[in-house]
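Pasting as-is:
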Amino acid sequence: MLQPWRHSTGDERGQATFTLIIVIAVVAVAVILLQRTASLADHINDKAGNIARVGGGINSSTRAVLELNKTNELAGSILGTAQPLQGKLDSIVGLAKDIDGLASSINNSASQINGTARGINGTASTILNTARSINDGVAQINTNLDTTIAIAAAIKDDTGGILGQANRANFLADCINSGVINPSSPGC
């Protein structure tokens, strides 16, 4: 039985490889058993051919009745030859059931992996949409910052003018305090 699905790709590959090796080994054993079964079936076929030859005249002559003992002997021989096949056939059926169980397990694992991949795909789509939204937000922030920088530069220019006028007003105030006032000259 396979272990529960894990997030490790290496474990999944290891399990899949192990399962594949088991399936190949089971198939190889099944092929060997089938070859042995075919060989025994050939022996049965040969004996059945003998039965057909020997028993061919049963319906038409009473001489065939005398051959019935020989036919029974051949049938007994066929039965004896076929009896070892039952265990081998049972073994093949058991191996086939094991292969079917492994195939079902592999199909279940593949279904789980497929479901997980679909979930990841959905999550990736959500992440992509979020990243695009963030990108759009950053672009808007950059646009707003460019506007803010332009306004700050204009404010700086205005404060430079205000500072110059404040310095001039301070100078004139000093002139007024000292009693020297001459607005037309750069000095007091």
